[in-house]
Amino acid sequence: MFPFPTTEVTPNKAEFDLKLEPISDPAQALKFLCGVDFDPKYSDWSHRIPSFIETYAGSWRMLKIQDRSGVDCGFCLMSDSPEKLAAWSRKFTSAGWIRQPIDVRSSTQFAYFYIFPTKRGGGRGTKALELIKRQEKDRGKKTIFGFSRYPEVIPLYQKTGAVILNQEKKGDEVRSYYYWDLTAEV
Question: 80 lies in a domain?
Fold first, then answer.
């Protein structure tokens, strides 16, 4: 069995009506990831997940994001290596079933990548972001910086207080750079 790190989670805030559940077992991670709704044309992609998990084992942590009724809203991958996290994001994005990738680089300690599957979570993205911000503030972070290639999710970030630093167009792609000032949170 390859090593698989666990993660600590601070107590949940009841007002978010969401919970973060650490996934510390490889079999549990595989069951969760392979159970996500795949685009039919990418259905064979799920068979490649085990090799991805094994390749990057020991370099990342996973949290499952659920509402209080146990409905999966998405999941969170964390790593101290932006390069390995970027490799994960490319794999997941190529699967076709990711609707709202959120690429967030923290100012210290870990890089984060949050993913909300297409057919799950509904309009819970804002609540999940608020929960993540609260968790980071509780850990002593003052700022969270982010970058996204998906213009459709920028209004979601702005609803949660994100400030847009810059937007630039590269070919058909629009890149947005933003940050959350956690010291301004009440």
Answer: yes
Q: Is residue 33 part of a domain?
A: yes
Can you give the pTM of this predicted structure? 0.49
pLDDT bin (cut points 50, 70, 90) of residue 49 is low
The DSSP bridge partners found for residue 21 are 64
Q: How many domains does the chain have?
A: 1
Strand partners, 105: 111, 145
Question: Measured between alpha carbons, how far is residue 30 from residues 95, 143, 166, 176 in Å?
Answer: 15, 32, 37, 32
- Condensed to tens digits (0 to 9), the pLDDT of residues 17-26 reads 666 677 766 6
> Is residue 2 included in any domain, yes or no?
no
Q: Would residue 4 count as lying in a domain? A: no
How far is residue 1 from each of residues 14, 25, 58, 67, measured CA to CA in Å? 36, 10, 12, 31
